[in-house]
């Protein structure tokens, strides 16, 4: 059975809760997630003890978790 985009993202979130990696690279992690899962991801990332490199168009997520930002292109 093949997983949908949302199911793959949920599985990746579950894996994040047990990772011991000191560095995460996330590309558009809120794609295919409902609001409840976005909020769960936000809580997980805020509590993550390591470094996160995050690429996202989700301004709410970026404002909630980022301590530094690099904005590429012209702001809207």
Measured distance between first and last alpha carbons: 41 Å
pLDDT < 50 stretches: none
Count of discrete alpha- or pi-helical segments spanning 4 or more residues: 3
Q: What multimeric state do the chains show?
A: single chain
Mean pLDDT: 88
* Largest beta-sheet details: 2 strands, parallel
Side by side, the strands of the main sheet go 1-2
Shape: globular
Helix content: 40-55%
Which class best fits the helix and strand makeup? alpha+beta
Supply Rg. Answer: 13 Å
User: What is the total tally of β strands?
Assistant: 2
Instruction: Report strand %.
Output: 5-15%
Order of helices and strands: HEHEH
Give a written overview of the molecule:
The chain is α+β, with helices and mostly antiparallel strands and 76 residues long. It is globular, with a radius of gyration of 13 Å. The mean pLDDT is 88. The protein contains three helices and two strands, in the order H-E-H-E-H. It starts with a helix and ends in an 11-residue tail after the last helix. It has a two-stranded parallel ribbon. It has helices spanning 5-16, 35-47, 59-65; strands at residues 23-27, 51-55.
């Amino acid at each position: 059975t093949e997983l949908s985009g949302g199911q793959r993202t949920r599985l990746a979130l579950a894996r994040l809760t047990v990772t011991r990696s000191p560095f995460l690279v996330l590309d558009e992690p809120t794609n295919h997630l409902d609001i409840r899962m976005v909020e769960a991801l936000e809580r997980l990332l805020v509590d993550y003890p390591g470094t996160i490199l995050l690429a996202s168009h989700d301004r709410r997520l970026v404002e909630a978790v980022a301590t530094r930002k690099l904005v590429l292109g012209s702001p809207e």
